[in-house]
Amino acid sequence: MSERKVLNKYYPPDFDPAKIPRRKGGRPTQQVVRLMTPFSMRCNTCGEYIYKGKKFNARKETVEGEDYYGIKIFRFYIKCTLCSAEITFKTDPKNTDYTAEHGASRNFEPWRDEKAVEEGDRLAKLEEEENNPMKVLENRTQDSKREMDILDALGDIRARNARNERVSAREVEDILERAIEERVDVDDLKRKREEDEDEQLVRQVFAKVAAPPAGLPVAGPSTSTPGSTSSASSSAEPATPTTITVKRKADGAQPDLKDLLSESTRAIVSNPSAAAMPPPAKKRKDLAASLGIKVGPKPNKAAALGIKVSAPKAKALV
Q1: Domain range summary for the chain, segments of one domain joined by +
Q2: Which residues define the annotated binding site?
Q3: DSSP 133-148
Q4: DSSP codes, 38-94
Q5: Residues 6+ apart with CB under 8 A from 224
Q6: Burial (Cβ within 10 Å: 0-12, 13-18, ≥19) of residue 50
């Protein structure tokens, strides 16, 4: 009985490998890949927008007869998500980008337009230089001037760097100290200028006038007595103020001191003789009689309760 798992096979002497039938069909040229759209596009069939980065199950193939310096170009087939129309695009190794080929149009991208404009300007400049020798001379002069400016700026930077490298630590400390002192001086000047402006504004708005006679109340701003202090342990009567700080009017004129006094005080100031006489005392009205209430004698609570209260006896002196 033969072995179930043989390692060697028998080849007859008349075996010809060329007579073995081959499978029909060649190697498949397309393969299925999963990709994301490299740019936003719009379907030409239904107008559906397909944004950049949308995932598709695509078919990839190598473009026959096209390459860029030996780099292969690939073509991808996808279907529209709305109408299932076939859309194809292929790689662009020259611009490191992709190109819409069939079934869709690429959306407008401003940076691509800028590159196209720059390329057009460069080609127009070359064409103009070919036909106009004077233009070539002008362009060369401008380029030379630009290069000289760049070299001058570079030389300044190098000289500054070399000077900074030669500076010692002591010089750096001196520079920092000088900068700090200048900064402090600037801050002091700024603070002093602000204080002067505030003082000038206060003088424009406020003014000091003489105080009224002693014993007269003042209705207006609070009085200030520069040069005098008061404490709780001093006498009950406050010290008489010498000056009063008042606010000026909008037109800049000083207000009259009498305008700051009350009506009664103003009458006393206008008639000094009336100030010596005290005001007449007001009689106290009987509120109960004015309201029609009769008040009788207070009842004796002990008599009402039937309690006899005897007078206390005087103690005999010993």
Answers
A1: 30-107, 115-165
A2: 43, 46, 80, 83
A3: HHHHHHHHHHHHHHHH
A4: SS-EEETTT--EE-TT-EEEEEEEEEEEEEETTEEEEEEEEE-TTT--EEEEEEETT
A5: 241, 243, 244, 245
A6: buried
Residues 29, 72: Cα–Cα separation, whole Å: 14
| Token representation of residue 292 | 């029609």
User: If we measure between CA atoms, which residue out of 265, 209, 284, 202 comes closest to residue 242?
Assistant: 209
The one-character DSSP state at 310 is: P
Rg, the chain, Cα only: 56
pLDDT digits (tens, 9 = 90+) for 38-60: 999 999 999 999 999 999 999 99
DSSP symbol at 315: P
| pTM metric for this prediction | 0.35
Separation of alpha carbons 78 and 138, rounded Å:
53
Question: Which parts are annotated binding residues for Zn(2+)?
Answer: 43, 46, 80, 83
pLDDT in tens, 14-30: 999 888 887 776 677 88
